[in-house]
Design a protein that fits this description.
Layout (H helix, E strand, L loop, with lengths): L3 H16 L2 H48 L5 H29 L9 H16 L2 H14 E8 L7 E7 L8
Antiparallel strand pairs: 1-2
Length: 174
Protein backbone atom coordinates (compact mmCIF):
# COMPACT_ATOMS: atom_id res chain seq x y z
CA UNK A 1 0.00 0.00 0.00
CA UNK A 2 0.98 3.60 -0.49
CA UNK A 3 -0.07 6.36 1.86
CA UNK A 4 -2.18 9.19 0.49
CA UNK A 5 0.39 11.85 1.42
CA UNK A 6 3.16 9.92 -0.36
CA UNK A 7 0.94 9.53 -3.45
CA UNK A 8 0.11 13.26 -3.45
CA UNK A 9 3.81 14.12 -3.15
CA UNK A 10 4.64 11.93 -6.14
CA UNK A 11 1.79 13.36 -8.21
CA UNK A 12 2.91 16.92 -7.41
CA UNK A 13 6.51 16.03 -8.27
CA UNK A 14 5.33 14.78 -11.67
CA UNK A 15 3.26 17.92 -12.21
CA UNK A 16 6.28 20.10 -11.34
CA UNK A 17 8.44 18.21 -13.84
CA UNK A 18 5.68 18.69 -16.43
CA UNK A 19 5.52 22.40 -15.78
CA UNK A 20 9.29 22.72 -16.04
CA UNK A 21 9.49 20.83 -19.31
CA UNK A 22 11.45 22.65 -22.02
CA UNK A 23 8.33 22.71 -24.21
CA UNK A 24 6.26 24.65 -21.65
CA UNK A 25 9.15 27.00 -20.82
CA UNK A 26 9.55 27.70 -24.54
CA UNK A 27 5.79 28.25 -24.92
CA UNK A 28 5.91 30.79 -22.09
CA UNK A 29 8.86 32.60 -23.71
CA UNK A 30 7.04 32.73 -27.05
CA UNK A 31 3.94 34.17 -25.39
CA UNK A 32 5.99 36.88 -23.65
CA UNK A 33 7.59 37.86 -26.97
CA UNK A 34 4.19 37.79 -28.70
CA UNK A 35 2.72 40.13 -26.09
CA UNK A 36 5.66 42.55 -26.46
CA UNK A 37 5.22 42.52 -30.25
CA UNK A 38 1.50 43.27 -29.83
CA UNK A 39 2.27 46.25 -27.58
CA UNK A 40 4.83 47.53 -30.08
CA UNK A 41 2.36 47.20 -32.94
CA UNK A 42 -0.30 49.04 -30.94
CA UNK A 43 2.12 51.90 -30.25
CA UNK A 44 3.04 52.12 -33.93
CA UNK A 45 -0.65 52.10 -34.83
CA UNK A 46 -1.28 54.99 -32.43
CA UNK A 47 1.55 56.97 -34.04
CA UNK A 48 0.10 56.39 -37.52
CA UNK A 49 -3.31 57.49 -36.27
CA UNK A 50 -1.85 60.71 -34.88
CA UNK A 51 -0.08 61.38 -38.19
CA UNK A 52 -3.37 60.94 -40.10
CA UNK A 53 -5.12 63.25 -37.64
CA UNK A 54 -2.37 65.85 -38.13
CA UNK A 55 -2.78 65.64 -41.91
CA UNK A 56 -6.51 66.33 -41.55
CA UNK A 57 -5.94 69.33 -39.29
CA UNK A 58 -3.30 70.74 -41.65
CA UNK A 59 -5.69 70.32 -44.57
CA UNK A 60 -8.38 72.25 -42.65
CA UNK A 61 -5.85 75.01 -41.87
CA UNK A 62 -4.91 75.18 -45.57
CA UNK A 63 -8.57 75.56 -46.54
CA UNK A 64 -9.08 78.36 -44.02
CA UNK A 65 -5.92 80.09 -45.33
CA UNK A 66 -7.27 79.80 -48.90
CA UNK A 67 -10.48 81.51 -47.85
CA UNK A 68 -8.53 84.32 -46.19
CA UNK A 69 -6.28 84.69 -49.26
CA UNK A 70 -9.41 84.90 -51.45
CA UNK A 71 -10.64 87.86 -49.43
CA UNK A 72 -13.12 86.01 -47.28
CA UNK A 73 -12.53 87.08 -43.73
CA UNK A 74 -14.55 87.07 -40.56
CA UNK A 75 -14.09 86.84 -36.84
CA UNK A 76 -15.44 83.23 -36.95
CA UNK A 77 -12.91 82.29 -39.62
CA UNK A 78 -10.08 83.77 -37.52
CA UNK A 79 -11.28 81.88 -34.43
CA UNK A 80 -11.51 78.69 -36.47
CA UNK A 81 -7.94 79.18 -37.72
CA UNK A 82 -6.66 79.74 -34.17
CA UNK A 83 -8.52 76.65 -32.91
CA UNK A 84 -7.09 74.47 -35.73
CA UNK A 85 -3.57 75.79 -35.10
CA UNK A 86 -4.00 74.89 -31.42
CA UNK A 87 -5.06 71.38 -32.46
CA UNK A 88 -2.00 71.13 -34.71
CA UNK A 89 0.34 72.17 -31.89
CA UNK A 90 -1.23 69.64 -29.51
CA UNK A 91 -0.90 66.88 -32.12
CA UNK A 92 2.72 67.79 -32.82
CA UNK A 93 3.47 67.54 -29.09
CA UNK A 94 1.75 64.15 -28.85
CA UNK A 95 3.63 62.87 -31.91
CA UNK A 96 6.94 64.08 -30.44
CA UNK A 97 6.14 62.38 -27.13
CA UNK A 98 5.23 59.11 -28.92
CA UNK A 99 8.44 59.29 -30.94
CA UNK A 100 10.54 59.91 -27.82
CA UNK A 101 8.80 57.05 -25.99
CA UNK A 102 9.57 54.62 -28.83
CA UNK A 103 13.24 55.63 -28.89
CA UNK A 104 13.69 55.64 -25.11
CA UNK A 105 14.91 52.40 -23.55
CA UNK A 106 12.47 50.56 -21.32
CA UNK A 107 12.53 52.10 -17.87
CA UNK A 108 12.06 48.66 -16.32
CA UNK A 109 14.74 46.04 -16.81
CA UNK A 110 12.67 42.93 -17.54
CA UNK A 111 14.18 39.65 -16.40
CA UNK A 112 14.54 36.75 -18.76
CA UNK A 113 11.18 35.03 -19.46
CA UNK A 114 12.70 31.74 -18.28
CA UNK A 115 13.51 33.34 -14.93
CA UNK A 116 9.97 34.70 -14.65
CA UNK A 117 8.52 31.27 -15.43
CA UNK A 118 10.80 29.53 -12.91
CA UNK A 119 9.82 32.09 -10.26
CA UNK A 120 6.14 31.38 -10.91
CA UNK A 121 6.74 27.64 -10.49
CA UNK A 122 8.52 28.34 -7.18
CA UNK A 123 5.52 30.46 -6.14
CA UNK A 124 3.22 27.57 -7.02
CA UNK A 125 5.31 25.30 -4.78
CA UNK A 126 5.00 27.83 -1.94
CA UNK A 127 1.24 28.05 -2.41
CA UNK A 128 0.91 24.27 -2.44
CA UNK A 129 2.73 24.08 0.87
CA UNK A 130 0.41 26.65 2.48
CA UNK A 131 -2.61 24.92 4.10
CA UNK A 132 -5.12 27.63 3.16
CA UNK A 133 -4.25 27.24 -0.56
CA UNK A 134 -4.08 23.45 -0.75
CA UNK A 135 -7.83 22.99 -1.31
CA UNK A 136 -7.80 25.48 -4.21
CA UNK A 137 -4.71 23.84 -5.71
CA UNK A 138 -6.29 20.39 -5.39
CA UNK A 139 -9.39 21.62 -7.24
CA UNK A 140 -7.21 22.91 -10.07
CA UNK A 141 -5.28 19.65 -10.19
CA UNK A 142 -8.55 17.69 -10.34
CA UNK A 143 -9.42 19.59 -13.52
CA UNK A 144 -6.01 18.90 -15.06
CA UNK A 145 -5.61 15.27 -14.00
CA UNK A 146 -8.30 12.81 -15.02
CA UNK A 147 -6.89 9.75 -13.23
CA UNK A 148 -4.01 8.57 -11.08
CA UNK A 149 -3.09 4.91 -11.24
CA UNK A 150 -0.73 2.97 -9.00
CA UNK A 151 0.86 -0.29 -10.13
CA UNK A 152 3.70 -2.50 -8.90
CA UNK A 153 7.08 -1.60 -10.36
CA UNK A 154 10.27 -3.24 -9.14
CA UNK A 155 12.37 -0.45 -10.72
CA UNK A 156 11.15 2.25 -8.31
CA UNK A 157 12.48 2.78 -4.77
CA UNK A 158 9.16 1.94 -3.10
CA UNK A 159 8.13 -0.72 -5.64
CA UNK A 160 5.19 1.25 -7.00
CA UNK A 161 4.81 3.29 -10.18
CA UNK A 162 2.39 6.20 -10.30
CA UNK A 163 0.69 6.84 -13.64
CA UNK A 164 -1.04 10.17 -14.25
CA UNK A 165 -3.64 10.67 -16.98
CA UNK A 166 -4.93 14.04 -18.07
CA UNK A 167 -4.13 16.91 -20.43
CA UNK A 168 -1.23 15.58 -22.57
CA UNK A 169 0.36 19.01 -23.06
CA UNK A 170 0.24 19.72 -19.36
CA UNK A 171 1.76 16.37 -18.49
CA UNK A 172 4.33 16.46 -21.31
CA UNK A 173 7.28 16.47 -18.94
CA UNK A 174 6.52 13.18 -17.22
Amino acid sequence: TIKRQKLEERVLARVRRGLLSPELVEAFKLEVHRQIALLTAETQGEARGLARELEQVELKIARIMEQIENGISSRTLGESLMRREGEREALLKRIAAEHAARKAPLSVDLPDPEAIYAAQIRRLDELLSTPEHVAEANELLRRLISAVGVRPDSNTPDGLAVEIRGDPQFLAGR
